[in-house]
Amino acid sequence: MTDEKNDGSQMDGFALGRPALVCRWRLAGRALPLENRHLRALGRRLVAGGPVSKQLVAWAKQHIEWTLADGAARHPDGVLMLVLDEAGRAAMTVGPYEPLAVTTSSALAERAQLAAREAAETGVAPETLWVVRGDVLVAGCPIDQPLSGAASLVADLAKTTGVPVSREVDLARRVMNGDKDHDELLLVSDEHGVVPASDAAGPHARRLADGYARLLETTRRQQAGARRV
To answer: In the chain, N or C terminus with fewer CB closer than 10 Å?
Structure first.
């Protein structure tokens, strides 16, 4: 059960146990653009061997609004962090966003491998490696693995533009081993969005990154307009 004594706006003074799941979701203009996608993915995750409960997802939905009203004033384009411990208790906070310093293919593949290890325990990878081969977009994850919020957005963007999407389990490992059987490479992250590799960018990756950037900018404008009313 979630500890309802936590107001969700901070974690100071709130004693969580060993973290079993940490979600980091990008903000824009004091709002969470992919909120519904993130919550849907949260409901498909596992904590301590069991599924995240509907009650905890409902708690997260409620506390997102409260947390952003308080914590996002300092970091309007920051990161919302949700932490769940092994007992099912949760806390939520907002911190600054820091872009990736290194975006080479190998660096992005290494991040994707770490996320894949997390997915082995929690069921969902917060970051996945994607490549473009010809006109096909390939996601580096198992066919039956639920997608994260950002990854589901990319899959849907591909569908709307008629780009076929497939999956390959060992994609990140092969890239780390020097495999270059692709035209473009990108990381899709709940925290960082769409990140084209600095040494393997191309029109498909840039188009997806631009689509994600437009979503953030649209959210900022809408939030700014709402505050002026």
So the answer is: C
